[in-house]
Amino acid sequence: xxxxxxxxEVLNGLRRNITLxxxxxxxxxxxxxxxxxxxxxNSQVRVMKDYWYDKIEVSIFLCGELSDSPTCSGGPVxxxxxxxxxxDLKTLPIVANVYYESQSEAFTRFKERFKGTALVDxxxxxxxxxSYRVKLKDPxxxxxxxxxxxxxxxxxxxxxxxxxxxxxxxLLGVLRDGALAxxxxxVVTAALLISNTLRIAAFNRRRExxxxxxxxxxxxxxxxxxxxxGLISAIIGWGIATGILAALKSLVDARVAxxxxxxxxxxxxxxxxxxxxxxxxxxxxxxxxxxxxxxxxLKV
Amino acid sequence: MIRCENVAKTYSKQxxxxxxSVTLEVAKGEFVFLVGQSGSGKSTFLRLIIRExxxxxxxxxxxxxxxxxxxxxxVPEFRRGIGTVFQDYRLLPNKTVSENVAFAMQxxxxxxxxxxxxxxxxxxxxxxxxxxHRMPAELSGGEQQRxxxxxxxxxxxxILIADEPTGNLDPTMSVGIMKLLDRIxxxxxxxxxxxxxxKIVDQMRKRVIExxxxxxxxxxxxxxxxxxx
Lengths: 300, 229
Hints:
By secondary structure, chain A is an alpha+beta fold. Chain A is 69% helix and 8% strand.
């Protein structure tokens, strides 16, 4: 068949089924948007992880006067112990940098944090532990630091700030999975609607397809106009979905980002990546739905 | 052109075969009437010829192809060598006469130039020279059937299958259609026509094959309609 002939047949088909075409386009647009929101949520979680994990540290608290951990039975950390710990930390390849916080610095921070409470008056600098703030190249490698330092004489405890963040990210992860699940379910709905629409289209045009079969049209050329109709609807729906995601990104940049300064937000690259993935999803889902439906309803 | 060897067709969930032990041969260029009461197996026989149905047993050769072994994807190509005409014309109501005829050529990928040349020629052959731009609904039944014949003939098939082509037409129109089919037959096209029209059969004096309950009960050269049903 000639391209011009096929194009004419496809446009005719889309026009004759205009209400159904619109329904398919809207359903595809909505379901791909939902899936896109899920994908952007995924990007957002990743961006936040990068942002926060970049800032977290491992704290190594050294023994002070009040420490009661068994490793502190020898009294407060000695100068030699501290020098050893510091040089050990600096030779560890996974460590990005090390910062020493003295008792007076800890006290300053403490006062700032509990300003205006009775605690400030009851605590003196020598009651607070001195510590090393260790920044790791990869925050996930905390276990190495822990096994190397905890239990050593002069060290009271080794703490990882990641454990606090992990709870937060677990919650975000659940939200993201939920968004993706809703997106996927609505994509399945769109697939079913496409399949149903094609079934109706095949029924509406059984005269044409009957004549096509009689004059010896190949299976492929009978199915091609239907397949193209499904794909065109999917592509239009995808275009709308991409527009919605772009609008969402602009909205986040303009309205949300100025309010929530404690994190970065997903970038335009994430939007385009999501859009590309949505295009693939739309085309593949539409093609599969069409193929399965047409095989059943347009037999030779 | 058509050869049946002990052909039987049983539709599933049905005990009685629609066709049973049919053995016959139709030579190239022959004109054959297929007669018999409703349910005698005429339509089934025609459906087997265009491979709309598969034989249940036996062997069937049409236009040099063994239909019992012809693979599914080769069926469309096979059908391009066979023209089909039905009682209900089967024209596309939203296309003009020319477009309806051209459709058969577009489907097989003919060049637009070729289509523009052939369509008026065929319309002239069926006597509808000036009807190209008309819609099927504007035409009489006889004219619509001529369009259907033009469409069936435009790809120059070896065989023309006609399933009661005059079933909806009055006697005058029927005569016109039969003249047309005769002309097509004279170009060397094999014609197989199922019909209930005794006058036409008696007039044409062609080969008559009569089916009854799926069995060939008569195969007569220059036959007549022969039964009153």
